[in-house]
Amino acid sequence: MPQFKENINLSSFTNYRIGGPATFFFEADSPEKVLWAVDAAKKRKTDFFVLGAGTNVLVSDEGFAGLVLKPKIDFVKTEGSILRAGAGALVSDVLSVAAKAGLSGLEWAGGLPGTLGGAIRGNAGAFKGEIKDVVREVESFDTKTLKFVVRTNTECKFSYRSSIFKEKGDEIILSATLLLAKGDPKKIKQAIEEKIAYRLARHPMEYPNVGSIFKNIPLTRIYADDTSNYAEAVRTFAFNFHGLQVPVKVDPFPVVPTAYLISESGLKGVSFGGAMVSPKHPNFIVNVLEAKASDVKALISLVKERVAEKFAVNLEEEVHLL
N or C: lower Cβ tally within 10 Å for the chain? Predict the structure, then answer.
């Protein structure tokens, strides 16, 4: 009979290396064990949280008063142009199998941390690509009905860094089927390695981090009713915003890079406690000296306040606060 572990410190399960203990902890290596764990938590009347690789979560210093459920369903298989993988499979492992099989469509994810389940939940994207572009269907577990569900791409309701799994919040992703394209294994591997090198050169990987803290800002939010200026900004990849020439990039649609706004707000290198706004990439808040969650949260609040004051833009967190 499976059993929960108790009083497990979560800092060792997150990229940030920050966080207090979980009252209960359980790693589920099959859909049936996911069902068992959720059912057991419900019978104990305790809250539960699903943790992937911990690459996009900030755990509070107090920890989590409930069950932290970590799916360990991590198989990766290919058949023709189809790749099937468990939600607990690391994106890096999925890419490795895809490259060896000569399957193209995920090269943009080179160097992307985390699990496939986490990437699908947050519709991860980079270099003009998103996971929604290749998802054929997703198997999940409905924690309210205790039933297994299979959703098509359309039924996943993907949007910018989100999906039905993130918005609804009561389904646990178990596995996914991806539809990829046949390609040259060597070219695919090279493209993946180029993305990895790009991230290493431009992101502060020398410190514990959880990637971008804030979402980039869709240009439509700024030019909601001004289509002429919007079109010009898209054409020139820049526009005049509060007296500054602000860059525009495609992500995969036109966005204002949040890192630029943070930098222009004078926040590069600003620190609080053991946390710091990275001088290398200011949309990263890094753990430089045994930071606490409260240190990171203080910087998140400061960044939002300063950017709102200077640019009249309200930043939205991409990191999950637990």
Answer: N
- What whole-number distance in Å separates Cα of residue 302 and Cα of residue 214? 13
- For residue 227, the model assigns a pLDDT of 63
- Same domain (yes/no): 252, 265: yes
Residue 261 C-beta-side C-alpha neighbours within 13 Å: 25
**What single-letter amino acid sits at 34?**
V
Is residue 221 located within the same domain as residue 156?
A: no
Q: What is the DSSP letter of 159?
A: B
Residue 312, Cβ density class (10 Å: 0-12 exposed, 13-18 middle, ≥19 buried): exposed
Write the DSSP string, 60-88: -TT-EEEEEEEE----EEEETTEEEEETT
The predicted-structure confidence for 32-79, as pLDDT tens digits, reads as follows: 999 999 999 999 999 999 999 999 999 999 999 999 999 999 999 999
Query: In whole angstroms, how far apart are CA 211 and each of 97, 206, 317?
Result: 24, 12, 11
Q: Which of 4-8, 70-74, 231-235, 315-319 has the lowest average pLDDT?
A: 231-235
Residue for token pair 């020439």 = 245
Positions annotated as catalytic residues are 161, 212, 318
Integer distance in angstroms from the first to the last C-alpha of the chain?
29
What's the pTM value of the predicted model, to 2 decimals?
0.88
Total structural domains within the chain:
3
